[in-house]
Design goal:
This is Protein kinase domain-containing protein. With 375 residues, the protein is of the alpha+beta class. It is built from 10 helices and 11 strands. The chain is globular.
Length: 375
């Protein structure tokens, strides 16, 4: 089921006329147009049986003729899905039409969105490790992704945004309101990251070497490293990774480490970091829209606040008393009646969220806090 704006017979939920100013209209979820995340290809929806927030991607051919569908289905088979190294996004279903089809995925958060920023070094390490692990797994199965950019890595943010997040406005929740109650990756026990978009992927046969012999710009410089925009704010925190980065960016492709070798080298480097180093706060510079440049007083205040928060969550994780808010999809599955027919009108008042006590440690799959606590 699509958002109200895209259902047949939709009429706006705000009053028409001169009295309806832009600010008032903007309070309504159905005023948000579909213009952000590849609008001609993807759209979000609600799976009616359980109220789960999903994403649909249109493939302009039959499912049987699409290599992207074939590769995605391969990674969603039971054998591959049970492997913890598999970071390909799960495929829920394929909706077939005569000349095209739709793949149905869990709705995830783009890393291009500003919120939530990485708070600690350990959170960045967790994302890098999962991405390298996912690539190494692909290569082990003789599949080359060929388009592994930041835009093609998504994060399962279900618990980070307990009120959901909007597909077309990164500053709004699923009901069109301003984001609130946003948690950090450490607070929720870490995030799961997925590789997406296998449209350029190639599956090699058992006898194929997997080496592309045709010359390309990759022979001069790895294409994903042509710009340093994605890493410029982290350089001062990850000096130990520079030898690995330099090797992965070698102009001679034959000298670059394999994905598995890169993963092993990365894990060896990560093991050198102490618990305190993993929890160190990342101070964003002036280009970041979240923070202005810090003076001495502001930096001291934020450092104290950061370490107090880190100590609090580390204590409750070790004592198994971490209180977690239910995820957005958990809330929808057991939610009030407005969850059944679709999205809530953003002008309606919010109901107080329920809180649940985690029975386990609250740690996810290798988050910064969990990694530090295992040391």
């Amino acid at each position: 089921m699509l958002r109200p704006r895209f259902r047949p017979g939709w009429t706006s939920s705000w009053k028409d006329g001169a009295a309806a100013d832009e600010e008032e209209i903007g309070k309504h979820e159905d005023s948000i147009t579909h213009s952000f995340a590849w609008p001609g290809v993807t759209i979000d929806a609600i799976r009616i049986p359980d109220g789960r927030h999903v994403c649909l991607k249109r493939i302009p051919c039959r499912a049987e003729d699409s290599s992207e569908v074939a590769v995605t289905e391969f990674f969603s088979k039971d054998k591959q899905r049970k492997d913890p190294r598999n970071h390909a996004i799960p495929l829920f279903d394929v909706l077939r039409a005569p000349d095209h089809c739709f793949m149905v995925f869990p709705f995830c958060r783009s890393l291009i969105s500003e919120e939530p920023y990485f708070e600690t070094i350990g959170e960045v390490f967790d994302m890098v490790e999962q991405a390298l692990e996912g690539l190494a797994y692909l290569h082990e199965l003789k599949i080359a992704h060929r388009d592994c950019t930041l835009a093609n890595i998504l994060m399962d943010a279900d618990r980070i945004f307990p009120r959901g997040c909007h597909m077309d406005n990164s500053d709004r929740d699923a009901d069109g309101r301003e984001l609130s109650s946003v948690r950090t990756r450490t607070q929720v026990g870490g995030a799961k990251y997925y590789l997406i978009d296998f449209g350029e992927s190639v599956k090699f046969g058992p006898e194929d070497s997997g080496i592309v012999e045709t010359w390309s710009k990759a022979g001069v410089l790895a294409p994903e490293m042509l710009s340093e925009d994605d890493i410029r704010c982290y350089k001062e925190y990850f000096d130990f990774l520079l030898p690995l980065f330099d090797a992965m960016m070698d102009e001679d492709p034959n000298k670059r480490p394999t994905a598995f070798a890169s993963l092993e080298q990365f894990r060896a480097i990560k093991s050198l970091y102490s618990r305190m180093a993993l929890h160190r706060r990342i101070r964003y510079s002036g280009w970041c829209t979240r923070y202005k440049p810090e003076n001495g007083v502001v930096r001291t205040f934020r450092d104290i606040k950061h370490w107090a928060k880190q100590d609090f969550h580390a204590h409750y994780m070790t004592t198994r008393q971490l209180v977690l808010a239910p995820s957005y999809n958990d809330r929808r599955a057991r939610g009030p009646p407005h969850h059944a027919p679709g999205y809530r009108n953003s002008a309606e008042p919010r109901s107080p969220g329920r809180r649940i006590r985690a029975r386990g440690s609250g740690c996810g799959r290798g988050p910064s806090a969990a990694v530090a606590l295992r040391r």
